[in-house]
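Hi W., the pyridoxal-5'-phosphate complex you wanted:
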Amino acid sequence: MVLYQQVAEQLAEHIRTGVFAEGERIPSIRKLHQQWGVSQSTALAALSALEAQGLIEARPRSGFYVKALPERLQVEEHVPAPVAVSRHQLINHVLNQSRQPGLMHLGAAVPEAVFLPQEILRRISNRCLREQPGLITDYAFPPGNKVLRQQIAVRMQAAGCSVSASELLITQGCQEALSLCLRVLARPGDLIAIESPAYHGLLQALEALGLQALEIPCDPARGMDLEALAAAIQEWPVKACVVSANFSNPTGSLMPDEHKQRLVNMLSEAQIPLVEDDTYADLHYGRRQPLPLKAWDREGNVLYCSAFSKTIAPGFRVGWVAGGRYHQPLQQLLTVTTMASHALSQQVMAEYLHSGDYDRHLRKVRRQYRQQLHNLVDALHASGLPVAWSLPQGGFLLWLILPAEVDALAVYEQMLQKGISVMPGSLFSASERFRHCMRISIAVSQPDWSLLVAALRGSLTD
Ligand SMILES: Cc1ncc(COP(=O)(O)O)c(C=O)c1O
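Structure:
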């Protein structure tokens, strides 16, 4: 994060936690310069960023004041009743439309090829095929390629988890890992607590398995509201909880460490298994990788799922699950469902990780995503459109909040006509929420954000 963002984030934190109350004046540019030791231009950039997020407002000749949080940015306080999920048709319709060639692809959360290490993967694949021809004919039975599991275990240990290769199962992407966990933990009709908004693939998995969603309100910056979760597990017989604490999809929220610890402890005490989806963690903009929930797991209650789909190769379908005390039933289920997966992609992934290129690649794409995000935020800011947005500290997704009366599904259709695909917000809820929101992927090469702004302006003023 660059300095002005750090200052903005600190001030935002003070606003969220009530250090600066609604209507209160916040430190002026001069005070920030004197007391926080930042230049006046950094202070101004930080205050402008907060103004763009709708957190503060400038009053002529007086300074900046904390705004009443607009209704559309507030975290809902009540927990809705559980609902059966039926989003499959809508989600498939949008996903199919958004894959059309020739569009500016801001919809699907799939990085364009320029953000993936294609060349080195091609070289390793060719070498593997030459040296180990069996890789295209052999089964790769669970638990999966041993060297790959060792490489993943080393990375997970570096991220604060005490996990060994023997506790990992290789899956076909994170989607299979999530789906296996849900099938091991719950039966049709059971309640699963999820983030609201939640990743649409999770909603589809719940629907396919006949599970009900209990949507727990989430803050676009800090993730799940733990008070709401605590109330929900008191009131409802929750079978499992699925959380993406590091750069959630769609908002990019990052849960603070104290909340992570509290969440893990709360669910462990309540004996509710916690499924962690850590797909985006490697894409942090800050210096250090944020800790996963699994780092606080002492009892094997966290089923950690992830994949290399967002960082190395979505098409390789290499993901994994560290299932804690559910490792055995997960392995059994994997054996009778998928039975085996691709030996070649697992071997190439193992060799790629072993090559040491991954961290260099990550440093590069993190820089690129951060820059693209800045450019988009600057364009939105300059546009003067009546929209608010999340300010993710990692990943490549931005959550855009339109005025409450706007139907983002209609905006989505209009934008598609103008050659731009985005993801309408209602795909991320089982209960018709977020109709006025949309998700934008910034993992596109050389995006012209003025086209997006013009299309948005057209749709919002139609
Ligand atoms: C949060 C999240 N979890 C899981 C997945 C599925 O990933 P995979 O392609 O590895 O199955 C995605 C893909 O968009 C995602 O965004």
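Residues 219 and 279 are 19 Å apart (CA to CA).

W.
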